[in-house]
Amino acid sequence: MNMLAQVPDTLRDAALLWKAAGGNEQPPSRWSPSQWQHHFPEHADYLSTLPQPIGRADVAARCADAPDGADQATKAFITAMIWGYGTVGYGWFRTRRVLSENDGAGEKLATVARIARDQGGPAAFAWLAERPHRLHGLGVAFATKYLFFCAEGGHAQPALVLDRLVRNWMSSNLDWDLSLEWDVEDYQEYVNTMSAWAQELDLKPGDLEMLVFQLAANADPRSLWSAPELFASTQAEASTPGRNGLSVDAIALLAMLDDAATAFARLPDPSDPDDITDFDRGVRDLKRIILSGR
Questions:
Q1: Taking residues 134-148, what's their average pLDDT?
Q2: What confidence tens digit (pLDDT) does each residue in 169-191 have?
Q3: pLDDT surpassing 70 at residue 294
Q4: Are 276 and 194 within one domain?
Q5: 3-state secondary structure of 12
Q6: Which residue of 158, 199, 225, 253 is surrounded by the most CB atoms within 10 Å?
Q7: pLDDT (tens digit, 9 = 90+) per residue, 25-49?
Q8: DSSP H helices in 43-183
């Protein structure tokens, strides 16, 4: 259990840097529409309506009607998995396995979406943790991604994402060992603590979780999810290098990289899915180089 009553300085500093840099949203996830349509032909028309890349707000909008029935919940779940897996090539396989290897998967996903919306994330987590409700092949990391978006449409406690990156960062930096093994009490403590910290920092709990995730991803130079620009102020003058901001030239270069990523996202899917991953990693590496020269 976490014994920290006060907001850790590391998170307080991260929140200040993020706000100073503009409080921008987490970069959206790129994905392969043709790959997912191929493996989910029954949902091909629906998948064609999803944006490329897809961001948190896009997924939240698609999950708003997840509580309404099995079909809506299934589509919402696929959408959340697309966002969560991004360019990871086996994402469709694990998603399809959850839906195909569990009897009544759609109904269970709709039920837990209703609980998340009406009773909050911890209540939904507790329901899904019960053996009769458990979905084979769906672990805590990706289950909480789905619950996060379902809870967004309600007014109860949030359902914060708890994946390996977040768990490892908490353990390494705060000596807080969270469980990824369906520990209901642990997850409740995680949501309670993060919500209290977020209130003190004047953040949404989901934004604080996102900052923890980005701190963890940014610490790995080869991570597909790194986004150091979220913590980089753009307010400095070009003539004042070495301060907490970026030069005008650096800002322009970052904007050009964003434009290139947008243009690449609009191209037809490459024949080799690894091309998407390589491109994303290359853009992130270039951003790191630019930001390191502040």
A1: 98
A2: 999 999 999 999 999 999 999 99
A3: no
A4: no
A5: helix
A6: 158
A7: 999 999 999 999 999 999 999 999 9
A8: 44-47, 56-62, 70-85, 91-100, 105-119, 121-129, 140-151, 164-174
Determine the structural domain holding residue 167 and report its residue range: 27-203
Residue 274 token pair: 């690894």
Reading the block at residue 205, the tokens are 């709990």
Q: Which of 5, 60, 73, 59 is nearest to 31 (CA)?
A: 59
Q: How far apart are the first and last CA of the chain?
A: 39
**Residue whose tokens read 């979220």:** 230
Structure token pair of residue 94: 């694990």
pLDDT at 252 over 50: yes
Residues 74 and 144 in one domain: yes
- 113 is written with which tokens? 């979406």
The single residue listed with the structure tokens 């589509």 is: 75
**Residue 147 tokens, joined:** 């619950």
Residues 133 and 77 in one domain: yes
Q: Answer whether 252's CB lies under 8 Å from 290's CB.
A: no
Q: What share of the chain is helix, strand, coil (3-state, %, to 5)?
A: 65, 0, 35
Question: Which pair of tokens denotes residue 63?
Answer: 């999950």
Residues 174, 259, single domain; the answer is: no
The number of residues in the chain equals 294
Backbone angles phi, psi at 54, to 5 degrees: -120, 130
